[in-house]
Specification:
By secondary structure, the chain is an alpha/beta fold. It has 3 domains: 9-93, Alpha-helical ferredoxin (Fumarate Reductase Iron-sulfur Protein, Chain B, domain 2); 109-269, no CATH class; 283-382. The protein has helices spanning 9-13, 26-31, 38-49, 57-64, 71-75, 82-93, 99-112, 116-131, 169-173, 175-187, 204-208, 212-225, 237-243, 246-250, 253-260, 265-269, 290-295, 300-306, 328-331, 333-350, 361-368, 377-382, and strands at 162-165, 192-193, 232-234, 262-264, 283-286, 311-313, 355-357, 374-375.
Length: 387
Amino acid sequence: MSGPLRLDPDGLVACVACGLCLPHCPTYRVTGREIASPRGRIAAMRAVEAGAAPADDAFVRAIDECIQCRGCEAACPSGVPFGHLVEATRAALGPVGPWWRRAAEAVALRLLAPRHTLLVAATWVLLAAQRLRLVPARLGLPRLRAASLRPLDLPAGGSPDAWLFPGCVMDAWMRDTHRAAARVIRATGAVVARPGAGADCCGALHLHTGRIALARRLAARVVRSMPGDAPVVVDSAGCGAVMKDYGRLLGTPEAGAFAARVHDFSEWLATRPPPPVARTGRTVVVQDPCHLRHVQRAHGAVRSVLRDAYEIVETDDDGLCCGAGGLYAATRPALASAVRDRKVAAIGRAAPGAVVASANPGCTMHLRAAGLDVRHPAELLAEVLDG
């Protein structure tokens, strides 16, 4: 790791430029540019790391345009750790983009996300702005309600059968999803609790934007907030993917043991006696969040827990990214919209007008902005619980 990007040399040389990743890269499919593909980005990283090319604007743009869906990793026969290479490259480059973007990211990631009280206070301001019609619908933000922001009816701490991780954005903007998840968890007979202090944010957004040191500090707080050996249930695919990687991120036995306890909501539910649900006959199109499908490899559980109540329909795009990518839809709106158009078309081909099941808040908001009815699997199950 002696080059300017300080990248793992084994990860860099693992790519043999076979091109099997290309059909699975959303930015390459939209643009057709080699530099917008995993293979092209790795070639650029190698050149910069070796001192054969500068980390100029074209290189920065290539790295910044990556959605980090990691679909390439699932398709790669050589096991190239592309996501980790991009994270390390972004850490070496530091914040990029115009001043207003850097300032907005600093406020969101350094001030609000790690301090949940401030984030909730900002959410109340956003709610008021929505009531005054000051928030454009095209942003896809959830329609906030004062009732949704009331505290979760969950005990804190103790020795539960399962912890429900709240997180930052999910708990501020989509707390009703947590309530639905808790209802379903209880319906299996399990006792569920929320973490103690320190579970404000998992660090996923920080890691994806190259703020690795801050991501590690947040991860350490999360590990301490849920002691014991009870499973940690996460209803945000992006959070779950990073939390399952805490062992590598923190490099401690405690973090590794914690990571082994982390389960996506549907993944955990599939291991329990199924809750009693009513058969609806309604059609649901499943949209796999990239970090559930490509990183956690737990997307099959969503179908398993929904099929008793709904008719499941698949898309024909092999799980291609929807373009949300955490902050990506805000920082690269044109590319994010172009990628989303392909996903919306695939959903339309599968079942026009059907409800879409998605287990990630970013995907949910991004697809709702395109006019789709998107629900979390926990919400779909909570509304059909028998009795």
